[in-house]
Amino acid sequence: MNRPANGSFPPAYRAVITGYGSFVPAKTLTNDELAKMVDTSDKWITTRTGIKVRHITTDQESTALLATRAAENALDEAKMKAEDIELIIVATITPEMVFPSTASFVQRSLGASKAWVFDLAAACSGFVYGLSIVQQFIESGRLNNAIVIGAETLTKITDWTDRTSCILFGDGAGAVVLERSKDGRKGILYSTMHSDGDRWEALNCQAYGSRYPSSKKLDDPNKIYMQIKGREVYQQAIRRIVETVTESLDHCGLTMDDVKMFISHQMNARIIESAAKRLNLPDEKVFINIGEYGNTSAASVPIAFDDCARKGKIERGDIVILVAFGAGLTWGANVIEF
Known about the structure:
CATH superfamily of the largest domain: Thiolase/Chalcone synthase
Distance between the termini: 13 Å
Low-confidence stretches: none
CATH topology of the largest domain: Peroxisomal Thiolase, Chain A, domain 1
Strand order of the largest sheet: 1-7-6-4-5
Mean pLDDT: 96
Order of helices and strands: EEHHEHEHEHEEEEEHEHEHHEE
CATH architecture of the largest domain: 3-Layer(aba) Sandwich
Radius of gyration: 19 Å
Strand content: 15-25%
Number of strands: 14
Structural class: alpha/beta
């Protein structure tokens, strides 16, 4: 790898993705089925979001279960045993319970007794944040490997009477195994993370936490559901995605011609397409699978990565950009030589 544009030298180690996997519930909810629940239609949803169907957990399926299944698939791909894993990060805003962490349940289910574990709450940006954290640990020589999982059961906090939001969300999980390598030509080349807490009201779910504890009656019972300011999210998402991808490429001394695939958080097909257009990316370099899954928050980037890789749209040696934008507000990107 050439010396980056900022003048820094490559680290001694790289964090390389050696395994990837995903898992979604078998139960689905189509747009036509939604139209029987709220005042909407398949045409209205598809035109505005690109979503056709989403996967829905049953009462017996939890975030930890989805996360575990995705991790198992990633471990199989990496040909690695769970007992050899050193760190497990679960990015989620729909955790198994208040505490302990969802990652603790995943560790137990996998039998990854050597791993230390924690959850990461950065909403839709959680997975790319998690990759950045693992990158630092591996590049410093602190870790040999790790699993990063994005897992969500968003339909459990969805207001099914609100037609502007209930059409958007689905459940699922995706995971990657990262291992330490001395090959400076591959792995995570660069990560950048950002946030803006002043805009927290654009995307939120306010109860139950210390501000609105379960012991007190809510002034608005809808605080237990996700709240979205669609126009603000739309504008901010496009702007931040474009800025972040541009920053990342500049840092690495790369251009769009070097990029094989742009994999964004699957929040809305129109947002992804608008950002890609501003970045002058041709359609064949933009991966979109929101139509099959809906918005799965922290799970969407790893599900899309797994889907993209298994469909043969990216191969070893390709430059891939992962980018996400979500509640917080949070946003970030990873440049990866796959």
